[in-house]
Amino acid sequence: MIVVKSEILIRPMVDNMSDYQLMAKWRSDERVLYFYGGRDYPYDLEQVIKIYQPRVRGKEAFIPCMFTYNRVTIGYLQYYHLPDLPENVRQQYCLETLDHVYGIDMFIGEPDYWNHGIGTKVLSSAIEYIFAHLSAAAIVIDPDVKNLRAIRCYEKCGFTKIRLLPSYGVHEGKYQDCWLMAIERNKS
User: Fold this and answer.
1) What pLDDT score was predicted for residue 38?
2) Is residue 23 a part of any domain in this protein?
3) Number of domains in the chain
4) What are residue 174's phi and psi, to 5 degrees?
5) Which residue, 174, 156, 154, is CA-closest to 166?
6) Engineering a disulfide at 45: which of 24, 104, 144, 180 sits with its beta carbon 3.0 to 4.6 angstroms away?
7) Cβ atoms of 167 and 175 closer than 8 Å
8) What end-to-end distance do the CA atoms of the chain give, in Å?
9) Residue 161 located in a structural domain
């Protein structure tokens, strides 16, 4: 994925120390982990390489990307074709069909860039790309029900709540409910 839209650039994450060090910085920042991953589960550089290098090298279904705002790399986005995920993961969504359905996850790793509408711009750009270039019929995302800022961003981009996923994700040692949210191609 390469998306260039005004001040936004979404590019593939690359197999180099610079990208891994940024991820380690973000995945160990308590402010970021409060919303993404959990403060009890920070990643050091070794863990980042272990988790993200297989994705970068195309050995997993996740397509990892970094995004920049005004030429500053500030966040991470990944997308994936749901039929390519393991069956136990696919079944948790309880969707009638998974054909041409993609999932997406993202976070802004630089807190100074929060609450400026940048996440909405990045996600809107990614949605356009996935619908136009990957022929997706729908895109889903699954935020923690307590992550109200993310949910507002997703709703601004056209996602709607489909169903509650009880005890879907573990965050800071506790199972948390998440929303399954979706946007269909004709609504983008």
Assistant:
1) 81
2) yes
3) 1
4) -125, 140
5) 174
6) 24
7) yes
8) 18
9) no
* Contact yes or no for 186/136 (Cβ under 8 A): no
- Asked whether residue 65 is assigned to any structural domain, the reply reads yes
3-state DSSP assignment of residue 38: coil
d(CA 3, CA 172): 33
Beta-carbon count within 10 A of 111 CB: 14
Q: What is the CA radius of gyration of the chain?
A: 16
In whole angstroms, give the CA distance from residue 155 to residue 50.
Answer: 33
Q: How wide is the angle at C-alpha 73 spanned by C-alphas 69 and 76, nearest 5°?
A: 100
CATH code of the domain covering residue 127: 3.40.630.30
In terms of residue numbers, what domain contains 135?
3-139
Residue 178 domain-assigned? no
The torsion region of residue 57 among left (phi > 0), alpha (psi -120 to 50) and beta comes to: alpha
Record the pTM: 0.90
Beta-ladder partners of 174: 171
Which residues contact residue 68 at a Cβ distance below 8 angstroms, ignoring those fewer than 6 apart? Answer: 8, 9, 11, 74
Residue ranges of the chain whose pLDDT lies below 50: 188
d(CA 142, CA 89): 12
Q: Give the span between the Cα atoms of 26 and 109, in whole angstroms.
A: 5
Query: What pLDDT is recorded for position 171?
Result: 72
| Summary mean pLDDT of the chain | 91
